[in-house]
UniProtKB/TrEMBL annotation:
Residues 52-157 form the Phosphoribosyltransferase domain. InterPro entries: Ade_phspho_trans, PRTase-like, PRTase_dom, UPRTase/APRTase. The lineage of its organism: Bacteria, Pseudomonadati, Pseudomonadota, Gammaproteobacteria, Oceanospirillales. It is found in: Cytoplasm. This is Adenine phosphoribosyltransferase. It comes from Larsenimonas rhizosphaerae. Its EC number is 2.4.2.7. PANTHER family: ADENINE PHOSPHORIBOSYLTRANSFERASE (PTHR32315:SF3). SUPFAM superfamilies: PRTase-like.
Length: 181
């Protein structure tokens, strides 16, 4: 957790029973609307990664883009979007992952990375970890090295961060929520 973790967590809105009954949706919109909180969020990531030799931030469609782009700018590295299937115009590689009800895929341009590039994978939230693991696999297939996976919110009770660690990746979350919170 970052030095601003408790503050960031206090700004995130919990919407009970959305999108379905029994789900507590963690809404980052208030965090984005609060300029001080958003700056502290980006600073949390900058302070963690400023000493690392990163080549790129690979941010996951779409909310990962919101934090990945300013972080790449601040760190002076490139920004690479990991998109939902069918959204990239050039030759792509694809990775399919399981959802609670079905499957989905993410894609990456086939020339996004050079062999050995050091990549930070970024998204807004880790729930079951499927999207983050799919993005990490794409990066590895393209020759990149996943330095760490990073997110604003971890929902540890859903097991995603554990799964990501079990696959050999470090996980950094600015804050986490238990289902009862």
């Amino acid at each position: 957790m970052s030095i601003y973790g408790d503050y960031i967590k206090s700004v995130i809105r919990t919407v009970p029973d959305w999108p379905q009954e029994g789900v507590n949706f963690r809404d980052i919109t208030p965090l984005l609307q609060n300029s001080s909180a958003f700056r502290k969020l980006i600073d949390s990531f900058v302070h963690r990664y400023q000493e690392l030799d990163l080549d790129a931030i690979a941010a996951i469609d779409a909310r990962g883009f919101i934090i990945g782009a300013p972080l790449a700018y601040e760190l002076g590295c490139s920004f690479v979007p990991v998109r939902k299937k069918g959204k990239l115009p050039f030759k792509t590689i694809s990775e399919t992952y399981s959802l609670e009800y079905g499957h989905s895929s993410v894609e990456l341009h086939s020339d996004a990375f050079q062999k050995g590039d050091r990549i930070l994978v970024m998204d807004d939230l880790i729930a079951t970890g499927g999207t983050m693991l799919a993005a990490a696999k794409l990066i590895q297939r393209s020759g990149g090295q996943v330095v760490e996976t990073a997110t604003i919110v971890d929902l540890p009770e859903l097991g995603g961060s554990r799964r990501i660690r079990e696959e050999g990746h470090n996980v950094f979350a600015v804050c986490s929520f238990l289902e009862s919170e």
